[in-house]
Structure formats: structure tokens, C-alpha cells
Design a protein that fits this description.
By secondary structure, the protein is α/β, with parallel strands linked by helices. The chain is built from 13 helices and 19 strands. Strand 13, helix 8 and strand 14 form a beta-alpha-beta unit. Belongs to the zinc-containing alcohol dehydrogenase family.
Length: 367
């Protein structure tokens, strides 16, 4: 640590930065540490498809030019390395909240931040916010500085490899919280047999208490779909959507080239006044059946990030062995040790080339 005054502290961080697609270098960056912030040593990270889009250069050229160089990874946990706050002592295990609203970065009241914050729209829509690994350096560094509110203590009962899934689970929780009043009796369908769909279904089951008789998952790969043991399951290529029963809420968790078919099949399934929640990310525009959206009075809502308040309910569920067993199906047989920029580069390249069903977990080993 280098101290410049009573409240002016800076910390140097070793970062694995993506400088251009398929090229990661080790560099040193310096962070200012303010009174309301903590310093975290990342312990574990999880590779997201969003990280791979940057790594592979699948973002638009203007986005890459604007955001790189940048340390990737926004799903992760760490240990408090320095803190001035008694509620977050050194050594505390924490989940890192990557979505940082501007008022927390600046240490000001929300009403002084931006129109979205003043009007109570939520920190997901803060005009001045930042997101780790997307425009600002992410978790692939040995000293991460975030507002203390963005460091959520992990209960002792929750092991590291389960806690690292907390960010993606919180995204599912945020998507569903807007329809929570309906979830006690709603018939729910979900499209997507990848990690996003699996964790969204797991949140429905273990956080919101939705039983299998009210949760129907649609996928395209039998081996992946078989993992959803807590739901009814159907292959999209074998299901007759024109004669299906009506559903109240449908989640689209496919993204990419499959978004078009999934969204339109979801519209087929929904009954009058149904809710369609879009969670899959696509770089291209997707044509949809607006006629049935209008005739059925369907409400569509997009959701891709989460807020600080979405983490405690997820962590509460994660304390239970049944939830841990469900989430453990996404864990790899081995974690990938990361000791250098070369290790990180190789892990990203392997994840790009071998996109399996399970998550890729990075175990940071800082020298």
C-alpha cells in the first residue's frame, strides 16, 4: 500500500488484461481506495459467454475499441484484503457484485446520481454505473476495489464453488422478482438447456418454491435437458406448440441464433395477459410474432443484470444441501488454476473452443 493522506489511499493491482481478441497480457494498474470501498483479493471466477464474446472478438468493432484493454470476468468471489469497515473485516469471503451504480462509486446519495436513480428505476439502469469486465476492469486481477455494498459476505455453509454461481443466480432472481406475485400459482415454461436456463430453473425451484408440476423446460439437447430433474422436460424439435396448454410466465434463456424460434414458441405457449421474460443475449435483431403479442396482451420484459438486493435471497437458498446438490451439476470435475496471464489466456481459449454444458471455474493463485 502507498498512502498519500488520511483518506487518500492507492493500491497497485496485477491484472490479466485482454488487449485485443485472443491476446491477454499481464499489466499493473493502480486503484484509488476511498473510505466506503474495500479491497478484495479474487479467489475464484467463472467464465461467462459475455467474457467469451470479448475474448473471441464477437462484439461489434466499435465496442471492442471503446472497452479494451480490460481485465475480464464478472462472476466471482474473493477475500477482503483491506477494509476500514468493521462489518467487513479482513479475511471475509465475499461475492463480488459486478454491477456498480454511480452513486456507490462516488459515495453520494442515489437522488444525487442520475434520473434513473432519482426516479427509483433501480441500479441496473443507472446512467453513470459501471460493470466489471464490461467497460471497466473485472475480476481477473489480484486487487479489486469496489464499494463495500458490492461485497456480499458468503455464509459459512456455502462452499466457494457454489458461491461463485451466485452472480448468475442473482440475475435469474432479478428477472423473476418482477413477476413474483404470480409465481405461487403460475404455470411456467422456460426455454434454454444451457447454464443460464439451468440456473434460472434452479432459482425457480429453490428460491421461489416452484414445483415440477408447474415448471416445464424446453431444450434441444437430450443430455442437457436430462439434468433438469426438478421440472417437466420436452425437446423443442418434438413438441407441438400449436396445441399446447397455456402458460402464464415464460422465460427465454437461449440467446444467439436460437432466440427467434424460442421467443416465437414462447408467444405460442402464453395465454392472455401472459408474461414473457427475455434473458438470452443476441447480437442481432430478432423478428417476433407481434400479432399474437397484441392479441394476447403479452407483456415482454428484458433482464440481463442484477442488483445488490438480489443476492441475499439467493445466498439463503444456497445454504441448503438440496440447492447445493442441484447447483453442483454445473460444476466441472476440476477447477482451472490461474497463476499467470498465459494460464488465463489458455483457459479462455479452451472455453471458447470447447463450450461444454458445465461452467469453467478459474482458481486464482496470486504470487
Amino acid at each position: 500500500m502507498i498512502h498519500f493522506g488520511v483518506n487518500d489511499t492507492r493500491v497497485r493491482s496485477k491484472a490479466y488484461r485482454l488487449v485485443k481478441p485472443h491476446q491477454v497480457v499481464e499489466t499493473e494498474i493502480e486503484h484509488e481506495v476511498r473510505d466506503w470501498q474495500v479491497v478484495i483479493e479474487p479467489l475464484m471466477g467463472s467464465i461467462c459467454h459475455a467474457d467469451l464474446r470479448y475474448y473471441a472478438g464477437h462484439r461489434r468493432p466499435e465496442a471492442l475499441a471503446r472497452k479494451l484493454p480490460m481485465a475480464l470476468i464478472h462472476e466471482g468471489i474473493g477475500r477482503i484484503a483491506e477494509s476500514r469497515l468493521p462489518e467487513l473485516p479482513v479475511g471475509t469471503r465475499v461475492i463480488v457484485v459486478p454491477n456498480i451504480p454511480g452513486y456507490l462509486s462516488d459515495g453520494i446519495p442515489p437522488e444525487s446520481c442520475c434520473p434513473a436513480c432519482r426516479n427509483g428505476h433501480g441500479e441496473n439502469y443507472c446512467h453513470r454505473g459501471s460493470f466489471l469486465g464490461s467497460g471497466t476492469d473485472g475480476i481477473a486481477q489480484n486487487r479489486l476495489v469496489v464499494p463495500a455494498a458490492c461485497a456480499i459476505p458468503i455464509p459459512d455453509e456455502v462452499p466457494d464453488e457454489i458461491a461463485v454461481l451466485g452472480e448468475l443466480c442473482s440475475v435469474a432472481y432479478q428477472a423473476l422478482v418482477h413477476v413474483k406475485d404470480r409465481l405461487g400459482s403460475a404455470r411456467i415454461a422456460l426455454f434454454g438447456d444451457g447454464p443460464v436456463g439451468y440456473l434460472a430453473a434452479a432459482v425457480l425451484r429453490h428460491v421461489y418454491g416452484v414445483e415440477a408440476d408447474r415448471l416445464h423446460v424446453f431444450g434441444a439437447v437430450p443430455e442437457k435437458l436430462a439434468q433438469f430433474e426438478f421440472a417437466r422436460r420436452s425437446l423443442v424439435q418434438e413438441y407441438d406448440f400449436s396445441s399446447s396448454d397455456e402458460y402464464d410466465v415464460v422465460l427465454e434463456c437461449t440467446g444467439g441464433s436460437f432466440s427467434e424460434s424460442a421467443i416465437n414458441q414462447a408467444i405460442d405457449l402464453l395465454g392472455p395477459g401472459g408474461q414473457l421474460i427475455l434473458m438470452g443475449v443476441s447480437e442481432d435483431r430478432v423478428p417476433i410474432n407481434t400479432r399474437d403479442v397484441l392479441e394476447k396482451g403479452i407483456t415482454m420484459r428484458g433482464s440481463s443484470r442484477s442488483s445488490i438486493s438480489d443476492y441475499p435471497p439467493v445466498l439463503t437458498a444456497m445454504r441448503h444441501p438440496e440447492c447445493q446438490r442441484t447447483l453442483a451439476k454445473l460444476l466441472p470435475e476440476e477447477m482451472t488454476p490461474i497463476t499467470s496471464a498465459s494460464d488465463f489466456d489458455s483457459a479462455m481459449g479452451d472455453a471458447e473452443s470447447n463450450r461444454g454444458w458445465k461452467k469453467v471455474l478459474l482458481q486464482f493463485q496470486w504470487s
